[in-house]
Design brief:
Blueprint (H helix, E strand, L loop, with lengths): L2 H12 L9 H13 L7 E8 L2 E8 L6 E6 L13 H10 L2 E6 L11 H15 L7 E6 L1 H15 L7 E5 L11 H4 L9 H12 L22 E6 L5 H13 L4 E6 L14 H29 L1
Parallel strand pairs: 3-4, 3-5, 5-6, 6-7, 7-8
Antiparallel strand pairs: 1-2, 2-4
């Protein structure tokens, strides 16, 4: 996308009615609509379903011969959004890795604060394994809070002794609910959508009386050892940029294979704007190649060990 086109997009996002005052839930609802409520492409079907006791949406893409499963976690500051709302972006990932998609309808704050979302995420993953799906055939993915939830679910699943999936894709992860990342300040005003004030009510609603630096709430502070390969993407113009950078650094220090992919000049969860943003398509293509490589690697590991 050209610089003028990016500038037009920036102006459009800045004009969104997301001021610091007013009803926070209504503001975040509008934010979700901006990022994720574009019409589903032809051939994408969304069907209500469940994994055990956890409600889900099963997303299929016409023409894709699914060989894998993508377990997806939508964004929305743990208070908004739905499994179906993430269908467009999730289907784009599923298309690129030949996967059927299961989007998780995890419980939302403030009615269901932490640890409800993490419990639902792990329960959904465990139910998928109990269905007989092999862990190496599964990829986890999420955007914003859903990306942070995906990491928390991996940590909790590891601690319960569950086998790890092939990989995880984390788009603009909200991984630090203490809001201590430097980009909260350095990208203030540069980010066309978000700032610290817009996160503060969501933090209070989700953490309740818990410590926001707890590893399953803010995986930037978790022990990440033993996690599968991570693909972390973010835009250079978002206040959560430092969450992505520090999460990648923590993963690398824990001997986790990690790819950090920063796209210049684009906002939070820019991949959701793939219909109008060439950088979104390119980022999804790069992620698809990396995830497919991990899926192939996991598939051939048994034969290597036998030789």
């Amino acid at each position: 996308m050209s610089v003028p086109q990016r500038e037009t997009l920036d102006r459009m996002l800045r004009q969104a009615p997301l001021g610091a005052g007013g009803d926070v839930r209504e503001q975040w609802r509008m934010f979700q609509e901006i990022l994720g409520a574009q019409p589903l492409p032809a051939g994408v079907t969304v069907t209500p379903a469940a994994l055990g006791a956890v409600r889900t949406a099963e997303i299929t893409v016409a023409g894709v011969e699914p060989r894998h499963i993508l377990l997806y976690f939508h964004g929305g500051v743990y208070a908004l959004g739905s499994a179906a709302l993430g269908a467009d972006l999730a289907s784009e990932i599923g298309r690129r890795i030949d996967a059927s998609v299961i989007s998780v309808e995890y419980r939302l704050a403030p009615e269901h604060p932490y640890p409800a979302a993490v419990d639902d995420a792990v329960a959904a993953y465990e139910a998928l394994l109990h269905r007989g799906v092999a862990a190496p055939d599964i990829v986890l993915a999420g955007e914003s809070a859903g990306a942070g939830l995906a990491v928390g679910a991996l940590v909790a699943a590891r601690d319960r002794g569950l086998p790890m999936p092939a990989a995880a894709l984390l788009m603009s992860p909200w991984a630090d609910l203490t809001l201590s990342g430097a980009s909260m300040d350095t990208k203030q005003g540069i980010d066309p959508l978000l700032n610290r004030d817009r996160f503060l009510p969501a933090v209070a609603n989700y953490v309740g009386g818990h410590d926001p630096s707890a590893g399953l709430i803010s995986p930037i502070f978790a022990d990440l050892s033993g996690l599968p390969p991570l693909v972390i993407q973010a835009g250079s113009r978002e206040v959560l940029l430092d969450d992505a950078v520090r999460l990648a650094r923590r993963a690398a220090a824990a001997d986790v294979a990690v790819t950090l992919d920063i796209t210049p000049g684009v906002p939070h969860v820019f991949q959701a704007l793939h219909a109008v943003l060439d950088e979104g398509v390119a980022a999804l293509d790069r992620a698809g190649r990396l995830l497919r490589a991990e899926l192939r690697e996991r598939l051939i590991e048994p034969s290597r060990s036998e030789s």
